[in-house]
Every structure is written in C-alpha cells, then in structure tokens.
Specification:
GO terms for molecular function: identical protein binding; ornithine aminotransferase activity; pyridoxal phosphate binding. This protein is an alpha/beta fold and 404 residues long. 37% of the residues lie in helices and 17% in strands. The protein contains 14 helices and 15 strands. The protein has helices spanning 9-19, 52-55, 64-74, 89-100, 111-130, 151-155, 160-163, 181-187, 213-223, 276-279, 295-310, 313-330, 357-366, 389-403; strands at residues 31-35, 38-41, 46-49, 104-108, 138-142, 173-176, 192-197, 227-231, 255-258, 270-274, 336-342, 345-350, 369-370, 372-374, 378-381. The strands form 3 sheets. The chain has a 7-stranded mixed sheet, with helices on both faces. It starts with 8 loop residues before the first helix and ends with a helix.
Length: 404
C-alpha cells in the first residue's frame, strides 16, 4: 500500500521536489509495484519497463527464485562485516570466478566502488609488480566514459556536467578517443598501469565500437604490460547477448568489473575479478567496505547468477535483441536516424530536427512504455532479459506507432 501522503502521482512528486536533492529529472511516473517486466504506478496504470534500472533488472522485477533467496537469507543472517566470515560469501566468490574464468574476486556494493577498487588494484600492481615509480601511475580512459559518480571517477569524465563544480580532482588519468587503437598505443608510457574501458558505452548513447577493438586493445595492453580493466557493469551478465560483452572479441580482461544485475534488481552488490597476481596486491587492511560481501547481498547474487545461467538469459537477449533491432530498422520513421546496440541494449537515435529523445520518452510513457533518454538524442530500450516475444511485440506496436 502506498502511504497516505503518497497515493497520487502529483502529491508524491511534490514530496520529492520539496524534500529531496534535485539531482535527477525523472519521468513523472510514481511506481508502486512490479512483477517481471511490468510495473504499476500509484494510480494502478500498467507499464512495460524498458529501462530495467539501467540494466540492474536483467532478471526482471522480483524474480521468484531471487525473492526466495532474499527471504531465506533475511530470516537467517544479514550482516557480519568482513571482520568475521559468513557462509554466503565464499560460495558467491567461487561462482563468480567460475562464471568469468578468473582466479579471484573482491566484492563491494555499488558500481562506482568496484571501479574505485579496480583503480586501486591497478595502481598498486603498477608499483609493486610493474615497478612504476611511486605516485606516478597513470590510467588511460576514454572520452565519453561513464564509470560512476565518485570524485575520482568524475574527475576523469569528459562530460562537463559530471565534473563542473566538483573539483579539484585526482591526477593520474589520461583521456583518449574511444574506438581508436592508435590513440591507445600512442598514449601508453612506461608509467601506464591500466586501460579502463567499457565494451559498449551505454551512458554515452549506446556507442558500439568496431568489431575487434577490444581484441586489439587487449593485444596492445599485453605487449606493453598494461592491465586491461573492462567495466562491464552495464554490459555484463547477459545484457548484450553474451554473458560478458568482451566474449564478442574472444578476450578476457585482466580486471573485470561487475555490478548492477549482480544484485538481481534487489540489492546493491558489485565486484572486480582478476588474476591472483593482481588481486594479491591487496593485503589485510588495504581496502574494504562495511557492507561489501554481506551475506544478504551474496545470497541474492548467487540466485541472480543462477537465474541468468539457468534461464539462458544471454541467449534470450541475443535472439530478442536481433528481432527487436530488425523490426525497429524495418520501420519507416521520419524521426529516427539510426538504431544501434547489441543484444537487448538498444539505442534509437532521434534526429535533431524531430526534437529531443526526452519528448519521445514522455510520449512512450503515455503509451505504457517506460524508457529513458540518454545523451539528449538517444532513446534507450533495455527491457529485462526475461521478456518474451509477446512483450517485445506489445512494445513494438506502440513504439512503431509513435515513431512513424
Ligand atoms: C551504472 C554504471 C556504473 C556505476 O554504477 P553505480 O552502481 O551507479 O555506482 C559504472 N559503470 C558503468 C558502465 C555503469 O553503467
């Protein structure tokens, strides 16, 4: 039940306007319950969720197996801190390593924390293994990157709004153009410890690099003894039609960064995975988090991974995504310049002459579809991976109607 103060859309939004920071500009819908791919607002209007909380809901809302794990674990043990062991943490670490074919993992809570953890691991590896002089380590990152919102991370963003007013920033990062192998090779120096990159730039507007870009980047990194750190927080765990997007290039990174769907749409949990050589730069006391590796999140994550594997969500994303894209490409729209993406991470680029993507998202909302614009001109379509062909057809009918 919605609380009394919050049973009507406008009253709810007024509370947020009045009492919350204004750091988001949400669509004017107040969601009160959800199941699978569907959500209902406080007025009981039904919508198809085509954002999936920026891909944190790959398994859909309130997946029964994930909810069962949550309830079970909540009835037994929720938090120990890492001062003691708990019986869920080890099994999750093993499952994660098996899934990613990596030797070790370090579990945190949010995506940004996992990226910070990767930065720390890469720098310390640089000093203790590669032999970079103290405090000289440099990490190469890409224009239009999105890796989170901490001060270190926004410090190496190329997006003025993410940075403006939040400096001074940490040194040690160098920006290069995305999808440009020559730029990577040229930027590497003896002090470079890592190249941090997204396999597809989601927040930048679903920018898919050329086939082979990651393969070439991995080769260059290996040749120069530089760690390849892949941020798969959004692209990983099935979203793009493979378990990890880097599988398209047949590579495995030195550091893999996961978050979002690892928590099954229920609880924040993130992780980095790496070789022993890299991970063992951390010794007791070097790094930590009170809630990192808590048994409630670990139990949920074990179930979240089981669902992705058991229900073959990567294969589903590949099939449905291909169908979705071909239908979108087949429509004769005066408003859309380009459809791009992989699996069920799809962007429709709205022509500048047709207005902003936001306007289209507002109209889609009226039609019962919740999608969100990214970078002004791109409508992102990223439904839960448990969606059926019927769900996609239901959405397509409305999307095509609006766009043609
Ligand atoms: C969402 C996201 C992050 C940040 O994750 P939070 O949990 O919001 O801190 C980092 N990198 C990518 C690619 C993301 O999509």
């Amino acid at each position: 039940m919605a609380t009394k103060e919050c049973s009507a859309t406008e009253a709810c939004i007024d509370l947020v306007d009045r009492y919350s920071a204004h750091n988001y500009l949400p669509l004017p819908v107040v969601i009160a319950r959800a199941e699978g791919v569907w959500v209902w607002d406080v007025e009981d209007k039904q919508y198809l969720d085509m954002l999936s909380a920026y891909s944190a809901l790959n398994q859909g809302h309130r997946h029964p197996k994930i909810m069962a794990a949550l309830h079970d674990q909540a009835a037994r043990l929720t938090l120990t801190s890492r001062a003691f062991h708990n019986d869920q943490f080890g099994p999750l670490c093993k499952n994660l390593c098996d899934l990613a074919h990596m030797e070790s993992t370090l579990v945190m809570n949010t995506g940004a924390e996992a990226v910070e953890t990767a930065v720390k691991a890469a720098r310390k590896w640089g000093y203790t293994v590669k032999g970079v002089p103290r405090d000289r380590a440099e990490i190469i990152v890409c224009d239009n990157n999105f890796h989170g919102r901490t001060t270190t991370i926004v410090g190496f963003s190329s997006e003025e709004q993410y940075r403006s007013g939040f400096g001074p920033f940490a040194p040690g990062f160098r920006l290069i153009p995305y999808n440009n192998i020559d730029a990577l090779e040229k930027a590497i120096t003896a002090e470079t410890v890592a190249f941090l990159v997204e396999p597809i730039q989601g927040e930048a507007g679903i920018i898919v690099p050329d086939d082979g870009y990651l393969r070439a980047a991995a080769d260059i990194c290996e040749r120069h003894n530089v760690l390849l750190a892949l941020d798969e927080i959004q692209t990983g765990l099935g979203r793009t039609g493979k378990m990890f997007c880097c599988e398209y290039d047949g590579i495995s990174p030195d550091i893999l960064i996961l978050g979002k769907a690892l928590g099954g749409g229920v609880i924040p949990i993130s992780a980095i995975l790496a070789s022993r050589e890299v991970m063992d730069v951390f010794t007791p006391g070097d790094h930590g988090s009170t809630f990192g590796g808590n048994p409630l999140a670990c139990a949920v994550a074990i179930a979240a991974l089981d669902v992705i594997i058991g229900e073959k969500l990567p294969e589903k994303a590949a099939q449905l995504g291909a169908y979705f894209v071909s239908e979108l490409e087949g429509m004769d729209s005066p408003h859309i310049k380009e459809i791009r993406g992989r699996g069920l991470l799809i962007g429709a680029y709205v022509k500048e002459s047709s207005g902003t993507a936001r306007t289209f998202c507002e109209k889609l909302m009226e039609e019962g579809i919740l999608a969100k614009e990214t970078h002004g001109q791109v409508i992102r379509f990223a439904p839960p991976l448990i969606a059926t062909k019927e769900d996609i057809d239901w959405a397509l009918e409305r999307i095509v109607k609006l766009l043609t």
